Amino acid sequence: METKDVNRLRIWAERLKAMGHPVRLEILIDLHQGCYDLKGIMDKYRMSQPAVSQHLSILRRLGMIRCSREGLTMCYAIPNDEVKAFITLLTKEVLP
């Protein structure tokens, strides 16, 4: 297998590991529907800011989400087409 392919497999292995946590998977499914701010995620999951920030940090580090400023609010979204396609498949086939 080529080095490029091995690197992609490693990246996806890390992403799948991150999605193994139910909260992170739910956050990704929600972000697939649109942009959320930190407060919206905290309220939806009834979690503290540090807990939500930790989950978001892991997803951001793996390139699964990005954070952008919209006025005074930081908005989280999925910019990665591969991740979007994976979440689409998951929601259509596994979690209908």
Could you characterize what this model shows?
It contains five helices and three strands; from the N terminus they run ααβααββα. By secondary structure, it is α+β, with helices and mostly antiparallel strands. It has a single domain, classed as Arc Repressor Mutant, subunit A (Orthogonal Bundle), CATH 1.10.10.10. It has a three-stranded antiparallel β-sheet. The radius of gyration is 14 Å and the shape is globular. The mean pLDDT is 93.
Task: List the keywords.
96 residues, alpha+beta, Arc Repressor Mutant, subunit A, 12% strand
Order of helices and strands: HHEHHEEH
- Oligomerization category of the chains in this entry: single chain
CATH topology: Arc Repressor Mutant, subunit A
Helical proportion? 55-70%
What Rg is obtained from the alpha carbons, in whole angstroms?
A: 14 Å
CATH-assigned homologous superfamily = Winged helix-like DNA-binding domain superfamily/Winged helix DNA-binding domain
Set down the secondary structure blueprint.
Blueprint: H1 3-19, H2 22-33, E1 36-37, H3 38-45, H4 49-61, E2 66-70, E3 73-77, H5 81-94
Antiparallel strand pairs: 1-3, 2-3
Provide a short characterization of the protein structure.
Helices cover 67% and strands 12% of the residues. By secondary structure, it is α+β, with helices and mostly antiparallel strands. The chain has a single domain, classed as Orthogonal Bundle (Arc Repressor Mutant, subunit A), CATH 1.10.10.10.
